[in-house]
Amino acid sequence: MLHIGKNELNTIKNEVIKNYPSECCGLLVGMNTSEKRVVEVHTVQNKNTERTQDRYEISGKDFMKTDRNASKKGLQIIGIYHSHPDHPAVPSAFDTENAWSGYSYVIVSVEKRKDIEFRAWVFDEKRKLFIEEKINCIG
Q1: CA–CA separation, 22 vs 20, rounded Å?
Q2: Is the omega angle on the peptide bond into residue 21 within 30 degrees of 0, that is, cis?
Q3: How many C-beta neighbours within 10 Å does residue 68 have?
């Protein structure tokens, strides 16, 4: 289960709406001890400029910077979020091919800039597929 606050979900929602019809992305920072808890959301630029409507890419520089800042606070990157403009909030073939185990993937479907659905997934490395993870909205 992924625990995430209402404020953090609103941050993601606002980014999704602002960037529509392009995919947006960001990093979920928090704790992954007895439970996964998102403490901060870090929006980053989608580095994929050729297929912004159906691909996202996070630069290594953004990832490392966020990771260093999180470590200073005793936190870590626990997940990644990205949007699916006018497509369901389920992992695409591209998402599956590029997934890392151990992270939560929050996919946000946005239809016509208003209908929004949040779903979370974890990648099962052995079976090479995503398994849905429940989202617990707190606060």
Answers
A1: 5
A2: yes
A3: 9
For the CA atoms of the chain, what is the radius of gyration?
Answer: 14
pLDDT tens for residues 53-78?
A: 999 999 999 999 999 999 999 999 99
Q: What is the pTM of this model?
A: 0.96
Whether 83 and 108 have beta carbons less than 8 Å apart is answered as yes
Cα–Cα distance measured from residue 26 to residue 131, given in angstroms and rounded to the nearest whole number: 20
**φ, ψ dihedrals at 4, nearest 5°:** -145, 140
Tokens 């709406």 sit at which residue?
17
pLDDT digits (tens, 9 = 90+) for 1-46: 999 999 999 999 999 999 999 999 999 999 988 889 999 999 999 9
Count helices and strands (H / E) in the chain. Answer: 3, 8
Q: What is the DSSP string of 66-122?
A: HHHHHHHTT-EEEEEEEEEETS-SS--HHHHHT--TT-EEEEEEEETTTEEEEEEEE
